[in-house]
Amino acid sequence: MTYETKPPVDAVDAVDPVAQARALRALHVPGRPLVLPNAWDPASARLVVAAGALAVATTSAGIAWELGLPDGERLDRDRALDAVARIAAAVDVPVTADIEAGYADETPDIAATVQIVLAAGAVGVNIEDALYGDPERDAATPLRPAGDQAARLRVARGAADAQGVPLFVNARVDTYWKSVGDPATRLARTLERAAAYLAAGADGIFVPGVRDPDEIRALADGVDGPLNILAGPGLPTVPELAALGVARVTLGSGLARAAHSFVRSAAREALTTGTYEALTGAMPYKEANTLFPHP
């Protein structure tokens, strides 16, 4: 049986960022989650839309790997958002961009990032509170102080509002992802940060790394906004997450990693056994070539 995550929707003007942003907001419904298989290039974006996705979310990890870099704030802003622009240009649905920590060392510079995001054609962002770059510091203090992160979100909100676009700001709380503190207090820490981020202007809360259904339900009940969960093998299914009150389900770097795993296994087969069975289910050339119209 197919699980219908959303009813049919009217077409949205692909060149109107306000309409796109409003459409993205309307798709965040607790109990009827927006499912986003994350894309990293125009082809993956078109494939997920063809599969039925009503919006496209980018994966910073997938984009970084595509550009020959590791994930974790190693991309510069221009290269990262150029990739987002190419993805947004390839689809007619709303696009939300994973901008890691905002590609800005200083809080005021978040405004420039948001302006470039909007110019790239995206109408949503993920902004995370994890710290990267200094292993010793990050081990001792894995997350940005909540007050500092709230200030960054406030700048992002103000920059979008100044452009007149109701950008969907998805504030990522990395307490679970980074295993911060005592597991017994992690839920309370997460809810505290979520409340501060929503008060600063965030629209939704993303908590990657949480797996326990009871904790997911507690988060959905305790967060005063749409809750986004990172899904994958071993986690509750989309219908189960819907029953827990989740409003958005993303696959993160999962699709990109699966694609790269396929390349590895198919290459190994050809180079070891000399066979090509892994390619049996490959998309036909003509079908792949029609992902993009001829100029």
Protein architecture, described:
By secondary structure, the protein is α/β, with parallel strands linked by helices. It has a single domain (about 15-250), classed as TIM Barrel. It contains twelve helices and eight strands. The chain has helices at about 15-25, 40-50, 60-65, 75-90, 110-120, 135-140, 145-165, 185-200, 215-220, 240-245, 255-270, 285-290, and strands spanning about 35, 55, 95-100, 125-130, 170, 205, 225-230, 250. Strands 1-8-7-6-5-4-3-2 form an eight-stranded parallel β-sheet. Strand 3 (about 95-100), helix 5 and strand 4 form a beta-alpha-beta unit. The chain is globular, with a radius of gyration of 19 Å. It starts with 16 loop residues before the first helix and ends in a 6-residue tail after the last helix. Keywords: Methyltransferase, Transferase. GO terms for molecular function: methyltransferase activity. One of its GO terms (biological process) is methylation. This is 3-methyl-2-oxobutanoate hydroxymethyltransferase. It comes from Streptomyces uncialis.
Order of helices and strands, N to C? HEHEHHEHEHHEHEHEHEHH
Number of strands: 8
Instruction: Provide the low-confidence segments as ranges.
Output: none
Q: In CATH terms, what is the fold-level topology?
A: TIM Barrel
